[in-house]
Amino acid sequence: MTNLKIGQAPRRREDTRFLTGSGRYIDDLAFDGLVYAVVVRSTHGHARINAVDISDAMKAPGVLAVLTGVDQAAAGIEPMPPYERANPHSGEAFSYPDQYPLAVDVARYGGQPVALVVAESQNQARDAAELVSVDYDAAPAITTIDVAREDPANYCLQWRTGDDTAVAAGMKAAAHVTSMLFHNHRIVTNPMEPRGGVGAFDPDSRRYTLTVSAQSIHNARDHIAVSLGVAPSDVRVVAEDVGGGFGSKNFMYAEQVLVLWAARVTGRQVKWINERSDGFVSDQQARDHTAMAELALDGEGRFLAFRLNGCGNLGAYLTGGMGRLHTDQFAALPGGPYIIPAIHLTVAAVYTNTVPIGVSRGPGYAESSNIIERLIDRAAAEMQLDRFELRRRNLASIAPYAHPMGLTIDSGAYLENFDAAVARACNEFENRQRDAESRGRRRGLGVVYHIKATFGVPVENVELTFGPDDHLTLVTGTQSIGQGHETTFPQILSDLLGVPFDQIRYCDGDTDLIPKGGGHGSSRATSMAGTAMYRAVQDIIAKGRRVAAHALEAAEADIEFHDGRFQVAGTDRDLDIMAVAKLARDAGEEGGRGLDTFHEYIREAHTFPNGCHIAEVEVDPETGTVALKRYTGADDYGTIINPMVIEGQVHGAIAQGVGQGLMERAVYEEGSGQLLSGSFMDYPMPRAADVPSFDLTFNEIACTTNPLGVKGSGEGGAIAGLPAIANAVLDALEPYGVTEIVGPATPENVWRAIQNAAGG
Amino acid sequence: MAKHHISTTINGEPVEFLCETQQTLLDVLRDELGLTGSKEGCASGDCGACSVTVDGRLVCSCLVLGVEAEGHSVETIEGMADGENLHPLQQKFLEEAALQCGICTPGFLIAAKSLLEKNNNPTETEVRYWLAGNLCRCTGYDKIIRSVLDVAADMRSA
Ligand code: FES
Ligand code: FES
User: Fold this and answer.
1) Residue A432 host element (H or E)
2) Ligand positioned closest to the Cα atom of B63
3) Could you identify the atom of ligand 1 that is nearest to the CA of residue B60?
4) For range A578-600, the mean pLDDT
5) Using 50, 70 and 90 to split pLDDT, how confident is the model at A1?
6) Is B18 on the interface with A (CB under 8 A)?
């Protein structure tokens, strides 16, 4: 029964259940009278749907219902609304096509749901799904941004921001301007647990319940309700253990509406679980962004101006907060932590016949960091400056730093982190380089300084309840899907309130438990819920002081609170917080709520996790094979609640980032719009043998805009990984005259780059 | 379709079950026997989330038919701890937080146990290659690898 402090590393409470195979993931849960749904998906990237013939499927054994776009209209199912429908800065509405849960008349991407088959067993549903016959007229599919841009009708948004005049002046005054074209290639996030859900409908209360594998359930609830044509209060969304999300389970999905509708139609609980092959063509994918960028430098290499013209591929529809991703996250910190006095951005996003794009660890910043970091290496090469020194010269060394695009970065120690990472990464690099040379290999280093501003849902709430059994229960609208909040949030409360860790219960994942919630996304959970917890605790202490003063017959001003006890100053008279909570409850204080406290926190400032990451690769020029040999990071995630948990978060993000840098790429066939990389056989992800151990240090520069000082640690590596790998490979291949690698540094891409540079 | 009657041993206990021809061992474990610790991440042998051993050999249970278990001995994650006592690998994963969402964890544990039964002195490279059949999107593998190496060292000094 011990109290914990912030900064300690208690073992994760959730782990015993995961380690013994007792986790409660969606596919592990038992439901009464379950029936099974299988989604019939468009087999074309773009096609007119003339008819959907369900007659054979309806006759198949065990089939209860087959739902189509025609039924959807009759049932009053509405389109799934994007979460953000206008540019938050200009107010300009985004242009977007209606996205119904089932395609109506036209399929805009391969994988789009066309029908839902519900049967008594999973196999019956699968067999019947094969019998649904869809009459398509295939149409040419647009898969790339460049082609989509040719038709103004494909644009979702176009927006210009920043200081064009100052940028023009900076370009004019420059000793050198480096320009580069970028394509940040598309990835499939692939959390290891496929998406799935169980829909239920109670005809008496007319309420829907969706049990689901998702990561931001309040937001999903509100938008699922719109699509069902009911009030949010008529929908309950529950998530138990979730096997990873990383952003891809953030926004709502068609299947979530479909199983609820199917539950209403069949009167049964309807379960759908994606297979991996479904996930590849239906999970929101990520990145896919092109840009033309120019960086102006003076004779000493100081950055004068930065012009960026970017365009994102949204896929076939506008999902969730993607409009805002382009106008907020991507536009928030162009140029990263480097001082650039003049910045101008042109931001655009277009539709194509590809799986809709959503978010994945570090969205927006991953694109903008890749641009500035590769541009810096290119500028260094062109100006024959040292790329480390060029970064040092331009890194912001002041905090707070008012970024020209408007945000104020409250804290940070960029130079310190940069120097720390460089010192460790470069230590004996020449020896390793020589050793590689002797084996016919080339070693290279790629350095990146990542930074992001945490966004995500700007409201969070917590409910703290003192139970009669001497337990404190925390209910939060954030959601833990692997980040360990079940441990770290009670740890925070144990520190702030002096209540033993074991007496604190944690609840999340149920929209009926708490009115709002932002789930998790954009590394927001601890800064948002942490602030809400901190402020709730201040309320509790204030209330407790009044109650304790009364009970101890002292003046309220004389009551001190520390280590879970209210004490009359200078005496040994005191009361434990649990006792005070009981007194407050028994006395009916605060309208009977006693010390129980609800707090809603509305974001007042962003946080800015940042750090320097350096990849060291070894390239075999004969085969183009790239091996990641070392990876060094010096990161600032603010105050660290639990170092053991943070390390893991950072490791995972690095693996994803280097995965994009080394191997991952979602590839569509031009014309047909077929996803060619639709399984783990065509879409490699980093495995244990593809990555080294990571050399990380944490510089705890407390964030000054939230009371816990936390910044959020989930994404740095995913932002830094791609440019770190690319810069390292180009460094290694410098003697070959290779100046660009397009896409991941696969053996083929690297080998071709070497051949092309040699004029072969 | 007539179901097959299969007699097998699961986690040391004799078990009989009925299954259809096309059901995988993973389907049988999860759907017929309620052993949901083995997970389906791909159903194609690429992710290792369904790892079990059959007669001590590491396999992807999504690639084995239920009927093939006839007369064989299957070990799953549910049999790894000894009652309340975690297996040293489970204990080390807990101590080092070598897991996050936990969905891949049973597969890693089964695969790591199978490695250490063959080789209690693996190099880091050997551990990384042995576990390369298991995908994890959360952890970047670092703590998993370190945990396995630590357990191997503990086993050798025990
Ligand atoms: S589910 Fe068997 S290997 Fe992925
Ligand atoms: S812990 Fe989540 S996939 Fe491995």
Assistant:
1) helix A429-438
2) 1
3) 2
4) 94
5) low
6) no
